[in-house]
Automatic annotation (TrEMBL), chain A:
Pfam families referenced in this protein's UniProt entry, alphabetically: ABC_tran
GO cellular component: plasma membrane
Organism, scientific name: Arthrobacter subterraneus
Keyword terms of this UniProt record: Amino-acid transport, ATP-binding, Cell membrane, Membrane, Nucleotide-binding, Transport
Subcellular location(s) of the protein: Cell membrane
Gene3D superfamilies: P-loop containing nucleotide triphosphate hydrolases
The protein's name: Amino acid ABC transporter ATP-binding protein, PAAT family
Chain segments annotated as coiled-coil in the UniProt record: none
UniProtKB/TrEMBL annotation, chain B:
Transmembrane segments: 20-43, 50-69, 75-99, 161-179, 185-203
A Pfam match: BPD_transp_1
Protein's UniProt name: Amino acid ABC transporter membrane protein 2, PAAT family
Compartment(s) of residence: Cell membrane
Annotated ABC transmembrane type-1 domain residues: 19-207
Any Gene Ontology CC annotation: ATP-binding cassette (ABC) transporter complex
Presence of the UniProt keyword Cell membrane in the record: yes
Entry similarity comment: Belongs to the binding-protein-dependent transport system permease family.
Xref: NCBIfam families: ectoine_ehuD, HEQRo_perm_3TM
GO MF term (any one): transmembrane transporter activity
Organism of derivation: Arthrobacter subterraneus
Biological-process GO terms, alphabetical: amino acid transport
Length: 269, 218
């Protein structure tokens, strides 16, 4: 099933330009430079995995895109629209423009962050009803469809505490899809899971990657999975994109020493 | 002085009337405290210039002064400035406002107890601020707060005796009045204490059960 068949994910005026662009973006935490004048683009429909050691700034990229963090400086565009335009010394605030652009983005969190007082179905219906103004019947129909897609039709009326981590993460993916984002962000989606539950979540993400034209940006430690589903892999270290290329090149023939040492360390076990 | 059974029996209807007034004060006062406390907690959290600091000062002021002083000021001083209500109304409002400051703190802890991931997920779904409060944050905060609010309700039930000082004819004032007119204090005060206990003990049992029911599950 293609969850996004009726959304114009690639069509439109923005198809020519990049779907996501970071133009000279920096992020400082006091003296700590998390991102250093980053320039980074993602094409519409592209599946990009971001790898690198912790503290390299890879999660910060996703969090700036989801407006959970503020860049210290720089321009971030999504689908041709400005999300952040921060001059040095500015203290940016949430704007109408930002809120409108943000709707094109969805995010799947490491800790799932489902609403624990709502059932799986209600979790998925909440934003379409409250934000898109969808009527409840329509939203429910779509939520059922999405739960089906992630293989959880039997868990519709379960609340998060009644579900395993893997099931919760699959509901979280369905919840993000319900808003028909053009860009879907995954922040280490399997890092909080017991090993035997990782597979079911990766299967759902793999199916999505293969069946939709959604742009996907994933921070992950699952190297084999990144190799399998990505069009491109970007290696981050110390707030910079060290190396970027097709998975075959990054994993089989990395050009940078830093990428080589990182991959040796993580692929050893 | 020896316990006089027939006298004790004869004053029970009067004491029950007083108890009923005490219960009414508690329920109305709790309603005011729960609503105003929620407003105070949310306003403080929103960090609005001027408004939030005023709310914070209000909470500090109320918590730092005795209920009895507040009741006296409201009943004896405010009328000098043209603000005057009957004793019952004044008592309910004073005790409601007094407890709202404590309940604001309870709500605050409940709101802060909601994981930051809930706010982040709400942002990621573009949920409007008001809906995030009403549908995501407060329902989760309430769960942890219910038993604590229950404890304050029981405390208010007992504290309402203080309002006898501003002539509210609740259970304590009734017992006192019976004592001063009959010169027998043993029966009315003992019975008043037993009536307080008869309500507060079962109520605390209910709160205990709520505590277990709303204990964090994960």
């Amino acid at each position: 099933m293609r969850p996004n068949t009726d959304s114009p994910a690639v069509a439109g005026s923005a198809a020519a330009g990049p779907m996501v662009s970071f133009d000279n973006v920096s992020k400082n935490w006091g003296e700590n430079h998390v991102l250093k004048a980053l320039n980074f683009e993602v094409r519409a429909g592209e599946k990009v995995s971001i790898i690198g050691p912790s503290g390299s700034g890879k999660t910060t990229i996703l969090r700036i895109l989801m407006t959970l963090e503020t860049p210290t400086q720089g321009l971030v565009k999504v689908d041709g629209d400005v999300l952040w335009d921060v001059k040095a010394g500015d203290r940016p605030r949430e704007t109408r423009q930002m809120r409108a652009t943000r709707r094109k983005i969805g995010m799947v969190f490491q800790q799932f962050n489902l609403f624990p007082h709502m059932t799986a179905l209600e979790n998925i219906m909440e934003a379409p009803v409250q934000v898109l103004g969808m009527n409840k019947g329509e939203a429910k129909e779509r939520a059922v469809e999405l739960l089906n897609l992630v293989g959880l039709s039997k868990h519709m009326d379960h609340t998060p505490p009644q579900m395993s981590g893997g099931q919760q993460q699959r509901v979280a993916i369905a919840r993000a899809l319900a808003m028909r984002p053009k860009v879907l962000l995954f922040d280490e989606p399997t890092s909080a899971l017991d090993p035997e539950l990782i597979g079911e979540v990766l299967n759902v993400i793999r199916d999505l990657a293969h069946s939709t034209d959604m742009t996907m940006l994933m921070v992950t430690h699952e190297m084999r999975f990144a190799e399998e589903i990505s069009d491109r892999v970007v290696m981050f270290d110390h707030g910079r994109a060290v190396e970027s290329g097709p998975p075959a090149q990054i994993f089989k023939d990395p050009q940078e020493e830093r990428t080589r040492t990182f991959l040796r360390a993580v692929l050893q076990h | 002085m020896i316990w006089d059974n027939s006298f004790a029996l004869s004053i029970i209807p009067l004491l029950l009337q007083g108890l009923w007034v005490t219960v009414k004060i508690t329920l109305l006062g709790t309603a005011i405290a729960a609503a105003l406390g929620l407003v105070l907690a949310v306003v403080r959290r929103l960090a609005i210039p001027v408004v939030s600091p005023v709310a914070s000062f209000f909470v500090i002021f109320i918590r730092g002064t005795p209920l009895l002083v507040q009741a006296y000021c409201a009943y004896f001083v405010l009328p000098l400035y043209g603000v005057s209500f009957d004793a019952f109304t004044t008592g309910v409002v004073v005790i409601g406002i007094n407890y709202s400051a404590y309940m604001a703190e309870v709500y605050r802890s409940g709101i802060e107890g909601v994981p930051v991931g809930q706010w982040e997920a709400s942002t990621a779904l573009s949920l409007p601020r008001g809906r995030v409060w009403s549908r995501i944050i407060l329902p989760q905060a309430f769960r942890t707060v219910v038993p604590m609010l229950g404890n304050y309700l029981i405390q208010m039930f007992k504290d309402s005796a203080i309002l006898s000082a501003i002539t509210v004819v609740e259970l304590m004032a009734t017992a006192q009045a019976i004592g001063s007119s009959s010169f027998r204090y043993l029966e009315p005060l003992t019975l008043a204490a037993l009536l307080f206990l008869a309500v507060s003990y079962p109520a605390s049992q209910i709160v205990n059960r709520l505590e277990r029911r709303y204990a964090p599950k994960h």
